[in-house]
Design brief:
alpha/beta; seven-stranded antiparallel β-sheet; six-stranded parallel β-sheet
């Protein structure tokens, strides 16, 4: 629930604040290289022709402007050591706190051309800081920066925990398509830039909120500077020959206070003396190299001049050293070197370089710039994911209300489609059938069999039944009430025309499609008229589904579009395979762990459907038998014949063929196999419990052989998640009772993992296997749940650990009183495992303990849920 909440907030803020953050990211990236771009655009302003004479001294420059521009109130003079670099003066300018910088020729003091592009960068700066709308914009950008911190933290949380490799964490997977690729791009690139965005946001808030700024000083243990009576001019961010003289221009308050006090005025001669003495003596006394030096014109006759200088190789553009020089005694009275500061002091005195990245060097600064330019990527991909999610939701609703999407023939008879489903396949086929009929302008209503009333059978003349067989020929759990209350009675259905689509699996030949046939026989006994013979579907085989569609088209004389169950398998990687029961009396059972190559979601209780493949040995044997070249290209497929055969049924009888095409059409795809999922999405690994199955000749089964032996670790597995709503976990804190045996523990483990994550502890597990020493699957995890109180009751039935065999149904009967008490407290029963033996014995035990009526009531209330096979 917490992760869902974070996800909702994450995408909501992303599609709202994302646009502002994108604008801030792009403008910040542009502004971070302001001086480099300006220098590139204005070489005639920043560079001069080197002359044979020495550069003008600060005193000479001051004297020059006193003569030619007496209105200039010079705050400071900067001179670079590079012979080709321009010098600069900073003069007071009304309305500008920082004054105005003027670049001059260092050999003649001639003013150089005005720098082009400054107005553009001023606009970019305002757009970045306050969207050019002043205080209101500053509040908006500040709030969006706080949201950026939430994006970073929630993004980490939504991707955590991960058991992926470094490559999966940080490598974009171009083989992904559609929404999966968009999500991968959003998440992987987001992981790349997390550290950059966190630093950008935390430093950007330094200028947004005073409380944040004060907090940074406290956290870093630096004393917050007090406003100075006269701040010093600072060298320009990227050109040390320029001044950023915000502080050399007195504030209005300062001027007002100065007018009330007698001034210790300084005349031009003393200023020239100060500049001259400082220029000739300070560098020699300093004893270290420098790249530029800035002399602040003294305002008082106190024999001191303030000097700022930049090292020959500075850490960053604002790594400035400051000094106070007594020009009468020609000695340095104060010196503060940037290099001598502690790291925390450097950070707090250089917030802009830290923010733009130059504090950590040019490579990091470039990476920060790229990260800032990527900001729109997350806004765009976030919107794309949001729109795709909206579209998918609309399609889901449309599938259930599709009659609104088609024009309906008012003279056509109503069709009622009834489905009986355990795992959702019958429901999907029912809706596919409804859509096919509606496209042919037929009125259709779809109902679940548990909702069917006797009046529905009397009031409708055309009914199509899509019925799954569950277990050993049983009706789906939710259909049991229909079987007992309606199918047990006789009715006059002579007015009714019907057809039955019976779903089953040939893996269970004794009960194949049994409930569908029983339903058809009951309809026939009650004089209903079959539109055509019952059609059987083996494991949702597309050819069987098409026979159903074709039969409908023939009997109705309607043009029905082809339909099938969509089986789009995703790519997963086989990450781990562990034998769970070494030395067991039973067949080997394996813990199988797969990781997705895409964004994957499932619910506790869902099913993993895998597409098995052939072993390399089987494919080689088939190729040799039919004298085929493995490297032959399959027509219209960008695959070799060996690659194409990986998922084809190579055991079918092959008729003589004249060409490769004649052979290929004879090879159907191997049927898929289904397994209960033993993990939940937050674990970021899909876990299965697979027991090896073998035939009389010792050949391993399709699914178990593929997952436990033939597929190599690291190999891709074709898998899709199938929704299994009848076994989903309840959404509240009612108690649950989990009953299972053998590999059926898998489905129960997913439920218990989900419950423990929610901190719901009213859980009871009854589990059975052969021997505790060898067959106690996931023993450490289960015992840890017991020790921490997340599993209130644990009852184990290991049948071979004593002379008299004990099974899970015996444990139920043994604890009948406790079972009744849990049921009275609202408990929900979940049963997962083999239908032969365990599930039927548990069902009989529950009938004996609770009674038929109460057990049926639990089914109707969704409090008796089964996933048995």
């Amino acid at each position: 629930m917490l992760k869902k909440t974070f996800f909702q907030i994450h995408w909501f803020l992303g599609i709202t604040a994302g646009l502002i953050l994108s604008l801030m990211g792009v403008t910040g990236a542009i502004y971070s290289y302001e001086q480099e771009i300006l220098k590139w655009m204005n070489p005639e302003s920043y560079q001069v022709q080197v002359e044979q004479t020495a550069k003008l001294t600060p005193a000479e420059i001051y004297t020059h402007f006193q003569q030619v521009q007496p209105d200039y109130k010079i705050n400071s003079i900067s001179i670079a050591k590079d012979p080709a670099a321009s010098s600069s003066i900073n003069i007071a300018k009304e309305g500008s706190k920082r004054g105005q910088n003027i670049l001059i020729n260092p050999y003649s003091a001639e003013e150089l051309p005005k720098v082009k592009g400054r107005e553009f960068f001023q606009f970019i700066q305002q757009l970045h800081r306050n969207l050019t709308v002043g205080p209101v914009g500053k509040q908006i950008t500040g709030a969006c920066t706080l949201i950026l911190i939430f994006f970073v933290l929630s993004g980490i949380y939504l991707r955590w925990p991960k058991r992926h490799s470094f490559k999966q964490w940080f490598a974009i997977k171009p083989q992904l398509k559609g929404r999966n690729f968009i999500w991968d791009l959003h998440a992987v690139v987001g992981t790349w830039v997390i550290i950059f965005y966190l630093i950008l946001a935390c430093t950007g808030l330094f200028w947004s909120y005073d409380w944040w700024r004060g907090g940074m000083y406290k956290v870093l243990g630096v004393e917050r500077p007090q406003p100075q009576q006269q701040a010093q001019p600072r060298a320009n961010a990227s050109n040390p020959t320029q001044l950023n003289a915000a502080s050399s221009t007195p504030s209005i308050e300062q001027k007002s206070s100065e007018n009330k006090k007698p001034k210790n005025n300084i005349d031009a001669a003393q200023i020239q003396l100060a500049l001259n003495q400082a220029w000739h003596h300070f560098p020699q006394q300093l004893g270290r190299d420098y790249s530029s030096m800035t002399f602040n014109v003294p305002k008082q006759a106190n024999a001191e001049i303030n000097i700022t200088f930049v090292d020959a190789i500075p850490q960053h553009e604002r790594a400035r050293n400051t000094a106070t020089f007594n020009y009468q005694n020609t000695e340095i009275t104060a010196l503060q070197l940037y290099a001598d500061k502690k790291l925390n002091e450097k950070i707090m005195s250089s917030m802009l370089p830290v923010h733009r990245g130059s504090f950590f060097g040019p490579i990091y600064q470039f990476m920060v710039m790229l990260a800032s330019l990527m900001m729109p990527l997350f806004f765009i991909t976030g919107w794309m994911l949001y729109l795709k999610r909206r579209k998918q939701k609309r399609l889901t609703v449309a599938a259930r209300q599709s009659q609104q999407q088609f024009s309906i023939d008012p003279n056509a008879e109503q069709w009622l489609i009834v489905y009986a489903t355990q795992t959702g396949v019958a429901e999907q086929l029912a809706w596919r059938t409804a859509t096919s009929l509606q496209e042919a302008h037929q009125p259709v209503t779809v109902k679940a069999i548990q909702e069917l009333q006797p009046s529905d059978l009397k009031d409708n003349t055309q009914i199509l039944f899509v019925a799954s067989t569950y277990g050993t020929g049983d009706a789906p759990d939710l259909a049991s009430n229909f079987v007992k209350k309606i199918m047990s009675q006789s009715s006059d259905l002579s007015h009714l025309r019907y057809a039955v689509l019976a779903l089953g699996s040939k893996e269970y030949p004794d009960s194949y499609c049994d409930f569908g046939h029983r339903l058809a026989a009951w309809l026939q006994r009650n004089q209903a008229h079959a539109l055509f013979d019952t059609i059987e579907v083996d494991n949702a085989n597309p050819a069987d589904v098409q026979r159903w569609n074709h039969a409908l088209a023939q009997v109705t004389q309607l043009e029905l579009q082809s339909m099938q169950i969509d089986k789009t398998f995703d790519t997963w990687r086989l990450q781990q395979r562990d034998l769970l029961n070494p030395d067991s009396l039973g067949a080997p059972a394996f813990n199988i762990e797969l990781v997705p190559q895409h964004e994957a979601h499932w619910a506790a209780g869902d099913i993993a459907e895998i597409q098995p493949g052939n072993s390399t040995a089987r494919i080689q044997s088939f190729l040799a038998q039919h004298q085929l070249d493995a490297q032959t290209l399959v027509p219209k497929q960008q695959q070799t014949l060996q690659q194409w055969l990986w998922d084809k049924d190579l055991t079918v009888h092959i008729q003589p063929f004249q060409s490769l095409e004649d052979l290929l059409v004879q090879l159907p795809v191997l049927p898929s196999r289904e397994y209960s999922i033993a993990s939940i999405p937050t674990q970021q690994v899909l876990r299965l419990v697979v027991r090896q199955q073998a035939d009389a000749q010792g050949k391993l089964g399709l699914g178990s052989g593929w997952l436990t032996q033939h597929a190599e670790l690291g190999q891709n597995i074709a898998l899709r998640i199938r929704n299994n709503p009848s076994f989903h976990l309840i959404a509240d804190n009612r108690p649950i009772i989990c009953i299972g045996n053998g590999t059926g523990l898998a489905g129960l483990m997913s439920l218990l993992h989900a419950r423990t994550r929610l901190n719901y502890s009213q859980n009871w597990l009854i589990f059975g296997e052969r021997q505790q020493a060898h067959d106690f699957f996931y023993q450490r995890t289960i015992e840890a749940w017991v020790n921490t109180g997340m599993l209130q009751r644990l009852d184990l039935a290991f049948s071979r650990d004593q002379d008299e065999k004990i099974y899970v149904h015996h444990k139920l009967r043994e604890h009948a009183a406790e079972l009744k008490q849990w049921i009275a407290n609202g408990a929900v029963i979940y049963v997962c495992g083999s239908i032969q033996g365990m599930a039927s014995d548990v069902d009989h035990a529950l009938q004996d303990i609770l009674g038929d009526d109460q057990l049926e009531q639990l089914r109707e209330q969704g409090r008796y849920r089964r996933d048995v096979y």
